[in-house]
Specification:
The structure holds two protein chains of two kinds.
Chain A lengths: L3 E4 L2 E5 L4 E7 L6 E6 L5 E7 L5 E4 L2 E6 L4 E6 L8 E8 L9 E3 L3 E6 L1
Parallel strand pairs in A: 2-11
Antiparallel strand pairs in A: 1-3, 3-8, 4-5, 4-9, 6-7, 7-8, 9-10, 9-11
Chain B lengths: L4 E3 L2 E4 L5 E6 L6 E8 L3 E9 L2 E4 L8 E7 L2 E6 L8 E8 L10 E2 L3 E5 L1
Parallel strand pairs in B: 2-11
Antiparallel strand pairs in B: 1-3, 3-8, 4-5, 4-9, 5-6, 7-8, 9-10, 9-11
Classes of the chains: A mainly beta, B mainly beta.
Chain lengths: 114, 116
């Protein structure tokens, strides 16, 4: 059974600081997704990482994937209040036999304070 | 495309009543997912369909919940009878699966259900 674990689950940051959110998964997969959810809103796709070593960046967020370590990171650079949201990672369960489904982590609730 | 469309956006009902949530996926997508989100349990996958056929309903909490997808452009999630513990935000998502596509799930705005 594919499991996806994120840590930390809660993160309080000061503006201007850097931090990293980690996403570990338990079985082979070469597709990983990051989503953002603002309070009271839906989930929005941020990044899709499709191969080992893939790196995607947008603004102050950078995501990377290491399929050998079964690890993805979401790095936040010089955080600003607008980044406050819950971030989910999700893994394509294709190799687990459940083609088409994504397995989501529990989410990391990020709060950026002045 | 307008994205995944869910209705209603908000539903308030009394315990014991039947509730029907509706979803229109993105045109051309072949997968449709129903999720439930609560503070206590987080995001839970209830059921998903491929080409209108239910693939995995192991996340459906109990027999009070049922889901249908009569055609490629419409799905319903029904709760009968509803209970206060069913109060949650229900999301519908759709995706296009394949070796050469990204398999991104696109989420609707959600239906916020309150059962009194």
């Amino acid at each position: 059974e594919l499991k996806v674990e994120q840590n930390p689950l809660f993160l309080s940051m000061q503006e201007g600081k850097n931090y990293t959110i980690y996403c570990n998964y338990s079985t082979t997969s070469d597709r990983l997704y990051w989503y953002r959810q603002d309070p009271g809103k839906s989930l929005e796709s941020l990044f899709v990482l499709l191969s080992n070593g893939a790196v995607k960046q947008e603004g102050r967020l950078m995501a990377s994937l290491d399929t050998k370590a079964r690890l993805s990171t979401l790095h936040i650079t010089a955080a600003v209040h607008d980044l406050s949201a819950t971030y989910f990672c999700a893994v394509d369960s294709n190799y687990g036999g459940s083609q088409g489904n994504l397995i989501f982590g529990k989410g990391t609730k990020l709060s950026v304070k002045p | 495309d307008a994205g995944v469309i869910q209705s209603p956006r908000h539903e308030v009902t009394e315990m014991g009543q039947e509730v029907t949530l509706r979803c229109k996926p993105i045109s051309g997508h072949d997968y449709l997912f129903w999720y439930r989100q609560t503070m206590m349990r987080g995001l839970e996958l209830l059921i998903y369909f491929n080409n209108n056929v239910p693939i995995d309903d192991s996340g459906m909490p109990e027999d009070r919940f049922s889901a249908k997808m009569p055609n490629a452009s419409f799905s319903t999630l029904k709760i009968q009878p509803s209970e206060p513990r069913d109060s949650a935000v229900y999301f519908c998502a759709s995706s296009l699966f394949g070796q050469w596509v990204q398999n991104i799930q696109y989420f609707g705005a959600g239906t916020r259900l309150s059962v009194l």
